[in-house]
Amino acid sequence: MLSRFMSGSIRNLEREYSCTVRLLDDTEYTCTIQRDAKGQYLFDLICHHLNLLEKDYFGIRYVDPDKQRHWLEFTKSIAKQMKSQPPFTMCLRVKFYPPDPASLKEEITRYLVFLQIKRDLYHGRLLCKTSDAAMLAAHILQAEIGDYDPGKHPEGYSSKFQFFPKHSERLERRIADIHKTELIGQTPETSERNFLQKAQMLETYGVDPHPCKDVSGNPAFLAFTPFGFVVLQGNRRVHFLKWNEVTKLKFEGKTFHVYANQREDKKIILTYFAPTPEACKHLWKCGVENQAFYKLEKSSQVRTVSSSNLFFKGSRFRFSGRVAKEVMEQSAKIKREPPEIHRAGLVPSRSCPSITHGPRLSSVPRTRRRAVHISIMEGLESLRDSAHSTPVRSVSHSESFMPRSRSQATDSTDGLAVISDQAYSPSDSVLPTPVAEHSMELAASRQVNGAPCSIEEEKESEAGTPTQGDGADFGADGKSAQDAADSALSEVEQVNKFVLSVLRLLLVTIGLLFVLLLLLIILTESDLDVAFLRDIRQTPEFEQFHYEYFCPLRRWFACKLRWVGELLISK
């Protein structure tokens, strides 16, 4: 009896596993889930825990053992999606940024979006000019510590808090001045709403950057926003395509293509290269989901999308869920008492230090800031000279999604828009999500006096880079040799792809012929009276096949089935 109970308990444990989800305020939600549970079940548990109804904007993110990010698919089993062993660790993030976050129906939804954008600001994903940055940081101060109080907030109090990857004393003074004079009397809800209204006007609002390279080898960040497809290089937005202009997203291996019609007589194709095939597939799936969410009128219009024109090749994916217009219509019908919000201002944060989390570590030393700034500007100049294509004209999105002021600002600019005084290099774009404990140590080691290193600083810190004399010649030779090796490797990859395509076509052809042959045999051996089949049955070849092969095979199968039936009955 005891052994039976123990074995049953072990089987139950094997059918369950622990799952931890890190929320936007960096608290953790842990639950036990059945092994065959789907992603929708876990997501519903989290939304119930948060008392969240406008949940279609959010998603669950995880990282596989190869450090590739993924969005959890709600229609599939969790265990089958996770390549690692339980217990699983994931995180709740904003997946589809609201086109107008300040007009969301419930305060709890606005608060969670506020936490996400504050996180984007800290990690450099929401990059903006200095004047905008000061206003955003001041709104965060007002939302979390309230009105300025000389007794509680001594001189230089804003310098103890970290809002951005790094900032200067001048910016810190400007943040304090705005907080002291312009935001007095605002409640946390009002400050958060004003923060969202300011953030949605920025060019990098809603950007979840995917690092890639263009056809010239220049680094770029691709992103999908509520208003369209965006490409960022240096401190500029070099491409912007509205969702109704994008006609197709396609990938093959590491290559990602965007097809668009800007006008009836102007069709463009943008090509970029992801670091790995897995990263390229993730980029493609994110694009497919964002296009369906923001572009379509109804979820019934969603279709299964293939990454290739051939039915037997490539990946197939279908967006599941409601589209943006349906979500907004459903939100308007919400009628309940506003849920209580427990703002997590005093909870220590793992990856996004809040203003109440203690003193901020000093950012880049003052003596290095000018050198870093010069290095960044030199990089921008070289990037500006090496742009590979003419920027696309920037046009506004549909009036239903884009606020009027944003529409006017977009119409007044060309496709080339300056987004910041510095180059776009989000410090968190290469870190896993969620950040594991060993990854936190890695992030700490990448910081310079408490500030995450930018790409430029990482390049500066690399040792042994010859810059002049014989070292420069050696570097040039090494670079040319590396380019030749990369070219040879690319040719080999192309040949391998061609061979795989031919083999795949051959296998599919053989499979189709085999299926057709089986279908023909079944039809000819049936009692179906059709002139075509009667003519086949009367041929000598068919009679020989029928008596020498088909009949003995049928008798053998019947004998085996009787034997299996008798075996089952005897038991």
UniProtKB/TrEMBL annotation:
Gene Ontology CC entries for this record: adherens junction; cytoskeleton
Alphabetized Pfam families for the sequence:
FA, FERM_C, FERM_M, FERM_N
Q: Which residues cross the membrane?
A: 498-524
Alphabetic keyword roster = Cell junction, Membrane, Phosphoprotein, Transmembrane, Transmembrane helix
Tree of life domain: Eukaryota
Q: Where is this protein primarily located?
A: other
Q: Where in the cell is it found?
A: Cell junction, Adherens junction
Which ranges carry the FERM domain? 17-298
- Region feature (Disordered): 346-369, 382-414, 441-480
- Example GO biological process: actomyosin structure organization
**Function comment:** May be involved in regulation of cell migration. May regulate cell-matrix interactions via its interaction with ITGB5 and modifying ITGB5 cytoplasmic tail interactions such as with FERMT2 and TLN1. May regulate ROCK1 kinase activity possibly involved in regulation of actin stress fiber formation.
The protein, known as? FERM domain-containing protein 5
Q: Which organism is it from?
A: Solea senegalensis
Q: What is the lineage of its organism?
A: Eukaryota, Metazoa, Chordata, Craniata, Vertebrata
